[in-house]
Amino acid sequence: MTEVLFFIEVVVAGLLAGTMYSLVALGFVLIYKASSTFNFAQGAMVFFAVLAFVGFMELGLSFPVSFVVTVLLMVLVGFCTERLVLNPLMNQSEDTLLMATIGLGFVLEGLAQAAWGVEVRRLDLGIGDFPIGWIIDVFGLFVSALDLTAGIVAAALIIGLALLFKYTRMGLGLRAVADDPGAASSIGIPLKNIMLLVWSAAGVVALVAGMMWGARAGVQFALVDLALKALPVLIIGGFSSIPGAIIGGLIIGAVEKVLEVYLGPFFGGAIEGWAPYVLAIFFLLYRPEGLFGEKIIRRV
Amino acid sequence: MSNNNIFMGYTRADLTNFLIAMILSFVAIPLIVQTDYWYSSILIPWLCLALAAIGQQIVMGYAGQLALGAAGFMAAGAFACFNLILRVPDIPFFVALGLSGLVAAAFGILFGLPSLRVRGIYLMVATLASQFFIVWMIDKFGWFKNYDTSGIITAQDIVILGKPFTSPLEMYLVILVVVTILTVLAVNMSRGSTGRNWMAVRDMDIAAESMGISLLKTKLQAFAISAFYCGVAGALFAFTYLKSLEPVAFDIKLSFKILFMVILGGLGTISGAFIGAAFILLFPVLLNSVGNNVFHGAIDATIISSIEQVVFGALIIIFMIYEPLGMAKLWENIKQRFSRNK
After folding, report:
1. Residue B1 has pLDDT above 60, yes or no
2. What does the buried/exposed string (b/e) look like for A77-109 if buried means 16 or more CB atoms within 10 Å of the residue's CB?
3. Residue A49, CB-side half-sphere exposure with 13 Å CA sphere
4. Given CB atoms, is B110 within the 8 Å cutoff of chain A?
5. CB pairs under 8 A between A and B
6. Looking at the complex, does the CB of residue B253 fall below 8 Å from at least one CB of chain A?
7. Which residues of chain A lie closer than 8 angstroms to B311, CB-CB?
């Protein structure tokens, strides 16, 4: 019985940690849906956003003020990206855009470090990374409060975004652009505003993801590597599907934890580092478009 | 056209350039450059990384497969070379080097397999697996490191025909021989049917397939040859530049560096690999010396490395927008302008 409980604990911890991957992946999906751009800089945006947030806190701003200022900063980043990077590269191949966003990622990482330094910062959200008492009492399970919060925040964000896209005029425009950018702009949907909206939303998602990661692992450069794990998440879930990003994140989180706990000791541990990528390869061989992605059809 | 063709389709100008490069690198540099610093901190890493960049160029610039795991293959080559020299008595250095290239090539084929199904960022993720897996494997299985627990293993001396090559100049010449041979081979491959197949697959793989080019063979060949170059480069890098073997030296950052060399240098040109490697290597040196000499250390070292990162990233974006073919093309344009004015 304790073994079963332990297994459930491992899976739950994995699932909840997976929601953090989902949060990063969500930013990718938003941008990919709207502009068919693989935004490799999403990881850097996570790092940039949370470092900015901690930086503003250190200046003595209060929590909500820092949050708002950082959100505004991310909107500015989105605006500059749209004007300086995406607009000049409109109608270029996906590979070109991908390489440009790799460059963008380096710019953001460099700027963040130049502005706020390279030391590891602590971020205290007032939520401890320790088991919740009443869950231990009721279910006998150890579930971290931070993990649970991340799960709830992720759920709230996704519901919020879904409502935004479904019921607002902007959201309708976004869905039109995602469907066919040419047709959408020909009927007068302002492409630029839509892009700005999407990049800003991705920036806010990046900030939230960064706050969750930062509270757990400290605000440091390693966040960028962690964010890389959103890539296998996307491959499993499909690049264009928000539910895919969530489920992909959960799968990666659970599988990597289970593998690490049960197989890791035989190989000296740290298989978390590559297991998600290998899992993604198997998915690629079996279902290249991911669980929820659209089938990729290519013609000569 | 035919009277331009002097030898194997090369023009007189091609051969003259080659001769000049050979005289410069084999005769002029050893005569003029006397300080060890230039060899061990600039020329040696430049040649090693340029070789790895040629590998990246083959798979990305020629065959159009977006791979991001060059450092993983370099690690495979470096540790294969270490183990061959350690475990096979009296193995000649060049044989060990060639075999380590082949070991890396085997990994290249294995991790190139996903390229048959996917492309673009999907492939990039699959190749990231190779990066993380190879480095992890070397790190976790003691055999590869000869059960060394210190984490840093000293590389063996390079011994060729009983003579140790240990001074920076000697090691430079060893690398130069290897790089020259492999560069000539790469140029020939890129101009021959192999290279044309790669480019056909790059430009439109479905069309290439319908014209009778086997995607399986062409893509895996590109991955294997690319990994071979990276493997040899990794072995040389570890034995002559780092002089030690540590898996962490071959992390994802090195893979990104090599990717940047190829993008900035110019996709689809061998010369781009050399230009890109020189730029990525020299720019931080330049920035540091500006920091030290102009601002007398008033600027923090971490700020300088951040600026370096911003500049690399910004340059990638700028080149993507204005000159997607990189510095090699820029150089061509400058040359053309001058020859037109003549």
Report:
1. no
2. bbbebbebbbeebeebeebebbbbbbbbbbbbb
3. 35
4. no
5. 133
6. no
7. 110
Question: B190-213: per-residue pLDDT in tens?
Answer: 999 999 999 999 988 889 988 899
Question: Would the CB atoms of A38 and B128 count as touching at under 8 Å?
Answer: no
The model carries a pTM of 0.88
Residues 18-47 of B with CB under 8 A from A: none
Tell me the pLDDT tens digit for each residue of B301-331: 788 888 889 999 999 999 999 988 889 888 8
Q: Please report where in the chains the tokens 């198997």 appear, as a residue.
A: A282
From chain A, pick out residues whose CB is under 8 angstroms from the CB of B316.
99-100, 102-103, 106
* φ, ψ (nearest 5 deg) of residue A281: -60, -45
User: Residue B126 and residue A284: Cβ atoms within 8 Å?
Assistant: yes
Round to whole Å and give the CA distance between B76 and B100: 8
Which of A105, A232, A277 shows the shortest C-beta gap to B313?
A: A105
Q: How far is B311 from chain A (nearest CA, A)?
A: 7
Q: Residue A242: name the closest of A175, A170, A168, A167 by CA.
A: A175
**pLDDT tens for each residue of A232-248:** 888 888 877 888 888 88
Q: List chain B residues with CB under 8 Å of A104.
A: 313, 317
For residues B300 and B137, the model is more confident at: B137
Q: How far apart are CA A81 and CA A220, in angstroms?
A: 23
User: Is there a contact between B125 and A280 if contact means CB atoms under 8 Å apart?
Assistant: yes
A82-91 LR contacts (CB < 8 Å, sep 24+): A82/A192, A82/A195, A82/A196, A82/A199, A84/B317, A85/B317, A85/B321, A86/A35, A86/A37, A86/A195, A87/A192, A88/B321, A89/B320, A89/B321
Question: Residue B7 is encoded by which pair of tokens?
Answer: 């030898």
pLDDT > 80? residue B340: no
Q: What is the ipTM of this complex?
A: 0.85
| Chain B residue with the nearest C-alpha to that of A286 | B117
Picking from B254, B246, B238, B222, the residue whose alpha carbon sits closest to that of residue B72 is B254
Task: Yes or no: say if A243 and A294 are a contact pair by the CB < 8 Å rule.
Answer: no
The ranges assigned to domains in chain B are 33-250
Q: Which of A281, A283, A295 to mutate to test the interface with B (most CBs of B within 10 A)?
A: A281
Q: For the segment B133-185, what is each residue's pLDDT rounded down to a tens digit?
A: 998 888 888 788 878 777 678 888 888 888 888 888 989 999 999 999 999 99
A118: which chain B residues are within 8 Å (Cβ-Cβ)? Answer: 302, 306
Chain B, window 191-220: residues with a beta carbon less than 8 angstroms from a chain A beta carbon: 204, 206-207, 210
d(CA B39, CA B46): 9
**pLDDT single digits (tens) A151-174:** 888 888 888 888 888 888 888 888
Q: Which CATH architecture has domain A2-286?
A: Orthogonal Bundle (1.10)
**In whole numbers, what is the pLDDT of chain A averaged over residues?**
83
Q: Chain B contact for A287, CB < 8 A?
A: no
